[in-house]
Design brief:
Strands 10-11-12-13-9-14 form a 6-stranded antiparallel beta sheet. It has a 5-stranded parallel beta sheet with strand order 6-2-1-7-16, with helices on one face. It has a 3-stranded antiparallel beta sheet with strand order 3-5-4. Helix content is about 30%, strand content about 15%. The protein is of the alpha/beta class. The protein folds into 2 domains: about 270 residues, FAD/NAD(P)-binding domain (3-Layer(bba) Sandwich), CATH 3.50.50; about 140 residues, Elongation Factor Tu (Ef-tu), domain 3 (Beta Barrel). The structure holds flavin-adenine dinucleotide.
Length: about 425
Amino acid sequence: MIMVKPITIIGGGLAGCEAAWQIARRGFPVRLWEMKPLRFSPAHKSPLLAEIICSNSLGSNAPNSASGLLKAELRQLRSLIVAAADASAVPAGGALAVERGAFSQAVEAQLSQFSHLEILRQEVEDIPRESLLIIAAGPLCTETLAQNISSLTGAEHLFFYDAIAPLVEGESLDKSTMFWANRRSDDKDYLNIPLTKDQYEGFYRELLAAKVVDPHPFEEQHYFESCLPIEVLAARGRDTLRFGPMKPVGLVEPTSGQQPYAVVQLRKEDKEGRLFNIVGFQTKLTWSEQKRIFTLLPGMENVTFARLGSLHRNTFINSPLLLEPNLSLREYPQILFAGQLLGVEGYMESTAMGLLAGINALAIARGKSILPPPPTTAMGALIKHVTTKTKNFQPMNINFGILPPLPHKVPKKERGERYSARALAALSEWMPVD
Ligand SMILES: Cc1cc2nc3c(=O)[nH]c(=O)nc-3n(C[C@H](O)[C@H](O)[C@H](O)COP(=O)(O)OP(=O)(O)OC[C@H]3O[C@@H](n4cnc5c(N)ncnc54)[C@H](O)[C@@H]3O)c2cc1C
């Protein structure tokens, strides 16, 4: 009898459990390593697998939202995590929220039905090389394992904090008061919002008074000088932002021919300019405060946020430089990454990267190769994001701005529905291994 080597997975979180399920339900052996309950990260508390570590909401379930689309795609591909969430849902308006204990128990019950799925409760320190491996140790991966990951990726390609600036939809900006210019060249890559002294000081006062999210105890005092939150910079003095991310030097406003008092710079996230990053505006402000304060800026009054800013402890790799579209390391094709560790942000996004890593690992084990889901799907768009080279790679949550634009302009309220219909049709054409 030929012995088949199991696919090994490190981390029994959302991504690791989803990957294990996708492999095991297709009859292939899996070995899943989870360090709890012997060791807990600073945020994990439950001994159960698939722990929801913070909010019990998994985001919108509305079919015309990007988050709802991702869930619909996961359901189409028989996701264990979404099925367990549906079975343990609690009322939460349009969101999918779960009773967290019941949710984790449902995941464990499904995984323990397979005799060919072995769950080992032990911390993994070294990276096993004897079989196909999926690393899904999450944003709070242990130090020793992280060190060993960095010996595969190069220390410069493993990050421990994210610094996420808000993203806004280009279409929703009123560009009439803004101007295109670069600080150091004649190129016109940045869209600049000029501010008068009064506008700058009003904005500065709002920032100082704004509510911030309390850091977790393990996150305190870990800001890097090069990526401080804007409210921390503002607290250093009235002019600190004017000498930092809001510096006007080298910029001339075309209408007045003058250098503005301060500027906010917006940089395109994609070639078409569908999404713009507010440069240097990583922040710990609460989401409602970000929406309130950033929409005070001229031209941003009616802006649609594709992603809000944040800054937290988060281990992730520089995936665009390291990973193939099947989530395997270019240098070590037997090692795949899954979950938040590869640079997506959020419960469902991590689950999606677990599902795809599982299917891809199985394809490799069976000597097959499969294409990633089409980029018009939410999952395909996330894969594109994490494998497309970019200057400053930061984790991404799902939003319609990372999907290719619709072929025709449609009214804003119909857009979500159209994106979703196109994505679900494309996904049903895409067949993973079975
Ligand atoms: C403090 C905090 C709050 C968050 N809040 C939210 C939120 O409200 N909403 C949201 O959508 N996302 C949130 N996130 C992001 C969230 O962590 C991810 O969306 C999701 O949990 C990631 O899934 P994962 O499977 O990649 O990692 P995890 O769910 O963290 O799973 C990783 C697993 O690997 C295990 N592990 C780690 N190292 C080892 C090792 N060496 N050996 C064996 N096992 C190991 C861990 O114990 C854990 O069970 C938060 C993240 C953090 C850090």
